[in-house]
Specification:
The protein is of the alpha+beta class and about 400 residues long. It is built from ten helices and 21 strands. Strands 5, 6, 7, 14, 15, 16, 17, 18 and 19 form a nine-stranded mixed β-sheet that branches. It has a six-stranded mixed β-sheet with strand order 9-2-1-13-21-20, with helices on both faces. The chain is globular and about 65 Å long. It binds flavin-adenine dinucleotide. The site of flavin-adenine dinucleotide has 41 residues, from helix 1, strand 19 and helix 10. Flavin-adenine dinucleotide (FAD) binds next to helix 1, strand 19 and helix 10.
């Protein structure tokens, strides 16, 4: 039994049925469709694995997961493109961080090259930068389409996807687990919790104190108007701040031809708060009274204020974008849908970086599956099934 019909839940179901074709699988998803949250609001990048600490779960599973995702797309006729990406250093102060990313890329076996301004101008004629890393193997895909295909495949193999079914309770018993949902109880051997923005709550339902709490951060985007799309050919990313690797606006060409610009990162007032006015008092109170959040906010309030300022001022957002593309103007941009990221925060205010998969009795909790979890999903599914297999083999 799997809770959550995002890409991690569906990939896990698919991997499980490949290995145990005779077993029954039920996926409970609280929304009326699959991929309704993080998976359906992401940037559609097939990440190469260049950023991640060598040996980490992210590094290992992003590489293998990307290959598996490309093969899956080939087999099922899902369009994807290896369009390549540049990570640029705008000035001298960013060169050492850029160098460290390049070293990580080498250590992780990513095909990448350090390039100067002339080559950068050939690849991305409108981008600024005194040096850059070119990653030819980075790609783009539509993860919603991947999920629709995964859902079809697992249904054909006998799985049941129960939509509009919210998990509301979990009772672990000696020889089974009873999963209470808004559409009735399901009795299973094992439960896999892949509920993304709600994974800490479902972990707690199973009688386990989660290692980290999920605090939702909204990422707001603009998109280039069609007449300005030629400013960005593929993927243009900044050199990330090692303290906040997920911050920093970038340009992403989508598989449908649009170009997404952003995001900032601001506290969302609801776990699924895609608009500024979306407020859920329970979610907001939990975030604001969580010691881990307060510690993080005390340490990094300046960075947080900058992100919030960009949320209210299009001019400030454009200024941040213009570091990468100096020609960009406010009139090139239309507002685009936001995404909400499940940020796992530990009580000491640290951002949990790596994927987190832990078994507690009859429940396997995916406690942290941030980017590049969409790229890596087929491999994360495999890791979860390895844990389940200890029960079945
Ligand atoms: C703005 C943004 C951009 C990103 N860009 C990229 C990218 O370009 N490339 C990449 O690889 N990764 C990217 N990511 C990360 C990636 O999208 C996520 O890591 C991935 O989608 C996580 O998948 P998931 O299945 O764990 O979570 P989700 O997609 O959030 O799925 C969880 C599901 O569980 C359901 N659920 C929750 N609670 C319950 C309950 N109680 N009962 C039943 N169902 C429940 C939800 O409705 C949801 O459908 C991005 C993320 C964001 C937010």
């Amino acid at each position: 039994m799997i809770a959550g019909g995002g890409i991690v839940g569906l990939a896990t179901a698919s991997r499980f049925l490949e290995r145990f074709p005779d077993r029954r699988v039920v996926v409970l998803e609280k929304e009326g469709e699959v991929a309704a949250h993080q998976t359906g609001h992401n940037s559609g990048v097939l990440h190469s694995g260049i950023y991640y600490k060598p040996g980490s779960l992210k590094a290992r599973n992003c590489r293998a997961g990307k290959l598996a995702m490309e093969t899956f797309c080939d087999e099922h006729g899902i369009p994807f493109e290896r369009c390549g990406k540049v990570i640029v250093a705008i000035d001298e102060s960013e060169l050492s961080a850029l160098g460290r990313i390049y070293e990580r890329g080498q250590a992780n076996g990513v095909e990448c090259e350090l390039i100067g301004p002339e080559r950068l101008a050939e690849l991305e004629p409108h981008a600024a930068g005194i040096r850059a890393i070119h990653v030819p193997e980075s790609g783009i895909v539509d993860y919603r389409e991947v999920c629709r295909t995964l859902a079809e495949l697992i249904t054909l193999r006998g799985a049941e996807i129960r939509l509009s079914s919210r998990v509301i309770g979990v009772r672990q018993q000696a020889d089974e687990v009873v999963v209470e949902s808004t559409t009735g109880d399901v009795i299973a051997d094992m439960l896999v919790n892949c509920t993304g923005l709600h994974c800490d709550r479902v972990t707690r339902m199973g009688g386990v104190k989660p290692e980290a709490k999920i605090v939702p951060f909204r990422g707001e985007y603009f998109e280039l108007k069609p007449e300005a799309r030629s400013l960005c050919r593929n993927l243009i990313y900044p050199t990330p701040d090692p303290k906040f690797p997920f911050l920093g606006v970038h340009f992403t060409r989508m598989i449908d031809g649009g170009v997404e610009c952003g995001p900032n990162a601001v506290l969302a007032f609801a776990r699924e708060g895609y608009r500024k006015r979306d407020i859920n008092l329970r979610d907001l109170c939990e975030s604001l009274t969580y010691v881990g959040f307060l510690r993080m906010a005390a340490r990094h309030w300046r960075t947080g204020m900058g992100e919030m300022w960009r949320s209210f001022s299009k001019r400030a957002f454009v200024k941040a974008l213009s570091r990468l593309l100096p020609e960009i103007r406010s009139e090139h941009l239309d507002a685009a849908p936001a995404g909400v990221r499940a940020q796992a925060l530990s009580t000491d205010g640290r951002l949990v970086d790596d994927f987190l998969i832990q078994a507690h009795g009859r429940v396997v909790n995916v406690g942290n599956a941030p980017s590049p979890a969409a790229t890596a999903s087929l491999n994360i599914g495999r890791l979860v099934v390895d844990v389940l297999a200890e029960r079945y083999e």
